[in-house]
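Input structure tokens:
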């Protein structure tokens, strides 16, 4: 199975990926595009720009082009659509130009696990975290994935609770052969 864990920043995605990696040792884990690009020397703006998110979107699409097998992806193209559609310069982003590529890439996933912001919020934010952007992206991701506003047609599992409970929800959703 090819599973992507999706959500806004500071929602618990990477923590869930770490837990799932321990529970599913046969799965390959693909780090999020931000870290991949950073390791390659990409210079992100201090406040991420539309171009920064487009670079991550392109990398996320490329990551999904890999061959078959059991894979856990930390983020997927929808994450970056959420950020781009919530960005203050969103008018500079040409969604229609990207949608065919995003739809094609998402067809290569079996499941998207959505880690949303819970009420009350489980994550303590630091002063440097952009809480307003975090909430806006969370709302946009729920619209994109749960409402399927752009007809992506991918299966989505929204998880909640502590990390162990979230991992259990994912495991229960996977076919027996994939565990």
């Amino acid at each position: 199975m090819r599973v992507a864990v999706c959500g806004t920043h500071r929602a618990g995605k990477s923590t869930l990926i770490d837990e799932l990696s321990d529970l599913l040792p046969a799965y390959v884990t693909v780090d999020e595009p931000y870290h991949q690009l950073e390791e390659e020397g990409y210079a992100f703006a201090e406040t991420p720009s539309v171009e920064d998110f487009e670079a991550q979107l392109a990398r996320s699409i490329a990551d999904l082009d890999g061959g078959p097998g059991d894979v856990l992806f930390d983020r997927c193209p929808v994450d970056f659509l959420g950020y781009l559609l919530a960005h203050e310069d969103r008018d500079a982003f040409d969604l229609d130009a990207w949608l065919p590529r995003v739809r094609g890439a998402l067809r290569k996933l079996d499941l998207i696990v959505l880690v949303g912001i819970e009420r009350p919020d489980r994550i303590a934010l630091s002063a440097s975290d952009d809480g307003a952007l975090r909430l806006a992206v969370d709302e946009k991701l729920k619209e994109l994935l749960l409402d399927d506003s752009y007809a992506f047609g991918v299966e989505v599992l929204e998880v909640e609770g502590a990390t162990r409970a979230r991992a259990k929800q994912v495991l229960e959703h996977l076919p027996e052969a994939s565990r």
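Strands lie at 2-6, 28-30, 71-74, 111-115, 156-159. The mean pLDDT is 91.
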